[in-house]
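Researcher: Here's the sequence for the chain we discussed earlier.
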Amino acid sequence: MLDYDKEADRYDATRGGEPRAASAAAALLALVPEDARDLLDVACGTGIVTSRLAAARPGLRVTGADAARGMTLRAAERLPGAVVRADARRLPFPAGSFDAVCAVWLLHLLDDARPVVAEAARVLRPGGVFVTTVDKDAAHHVGSDIDELTAHCRAAHAEDGTERVTAYAAEHGLDPSGTALFRGHGQGRTPRRVAQYIRGGRLYAAGGPRLAERVETLPGPDVPRREPDFTLRAFRRR
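Model: Thanks. This is the structure I predict for it:
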């Protein structure tokens, strides 16, 4: 896993920046009830999306939480006094504190997403909504030449798979309540970058150096392929 303390300073620039943040925030807000009073953004990162949520709805009190010190420092610049350092599996809030909890690009990083879903359910008020990205890695498979070469090395297990997350949610009294898509601006993969990830063990590790070499020799090694569309799923607490 990445060292997010070290990644903080360059995270936004390498993850689509403001265009992607605007797209994600708009999709999130489409799933958050208009009468929501308090929202918690778990794994808020640099706060680039979190701050947009706060700006879009002045009546919505937004709190950001992240486990990485570097990320919380950046987020606090955008949301002074509204960011805490916290583990998503052990949130420092009483039960029933929020009308909405969101977790963007978090569950796919985990070996077990159950504790995060459980905590989101715990801190939600009855009728509150949990919104999270699902199928993150699958979204990057856009039918490109890179995808054709790497298809045999894709992991069969995805902790953020829709069916898996829906099952976890049901265990904690959360029922499906909506879906939204948003464009991953600046996230189109290039052969050279994918080859670097393969060599570093971050993608398709089973393919090894040989797969990295084959990917890197594809035409247009620095030309981004089609941008992915990410999926958000909302779950309402009974």
